[in-house]
């Protein structure tokens, strides 16, 4: 007879209560008004490009991940146990944090901007180009997430 799997929810580590209001605020932003996935799917795209409707979701995801990254790596305000708990429960993007720890990717906005398969010529996104390398007056805006420049040299 097969074993019956029971789901056990692990209790949040010590210190989670202190950052929970901020995480709930990010969740509320993601659900309220124009920044929900339902809005992204159902909103008419009058006067907008199709990709522009998903940009608020990318921004909130980036802010929440950066908040957790700063708490652990910059301010050292949370424990390793709490940090691992947050990554395991998808409060932050572990792959994005892994890139932020590497040289040259400290300001990376999203992982799609460094994937060459998502661009026409097999390079990175235009937001990864340092601003001084671009021609004067050219508006730089990422197609994927709306970033206006996340090169670490800026």
From TrEMBL:
GO terms under cellular component: spliceosomal complex
Gene Ontology BP annotations: mRNA splicing, via spliceosome
Keywords: Nucleus
Main location: nucleus
Subcellular location: Nucleus
UniProt keyword Phosphoprotein present: no
Top-level division of the source organism's lineage: Eukaryota
Presence of keyword Nucleus: yes
One family name in Pfam for this protein: BUD31
Entry similarity comment: Belongs to the BUD31 (G10) family.
Name assigned to this protein: G10 protein
């Amino acid at each position: 007879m097969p074993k019956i799997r029971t789901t056990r929810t692990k209790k949040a580590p010590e210190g989670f209560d202190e950052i929970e209001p901020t995480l709930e605020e990010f969740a509320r932003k993601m659900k309220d008004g124009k920044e929900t996935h339902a809005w992204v799917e159902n909103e008419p795209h009058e006067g907008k490009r199709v990709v522009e409707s998903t940009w608020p979701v990318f921004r909130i995801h980036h802010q929440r991940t950066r908040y957790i990254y700063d708490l652990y790596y910059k301010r050292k305000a949370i424990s390793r146990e709490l940090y691992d708990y947050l990554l395991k429960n998808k409060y932050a993007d572990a792959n994005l944090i892994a890139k932020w720890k590497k040289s040259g990717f400290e300001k990376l906005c999203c992982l799609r901007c460094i994937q060459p398969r998502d661009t026409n010529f097999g390079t990175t996104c235009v937001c990864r180009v340092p601003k001084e390398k671009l021609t004067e007056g050219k508006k730089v805006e990422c197609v994927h997430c709306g970033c206006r420049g996340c090169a670490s040299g800026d």
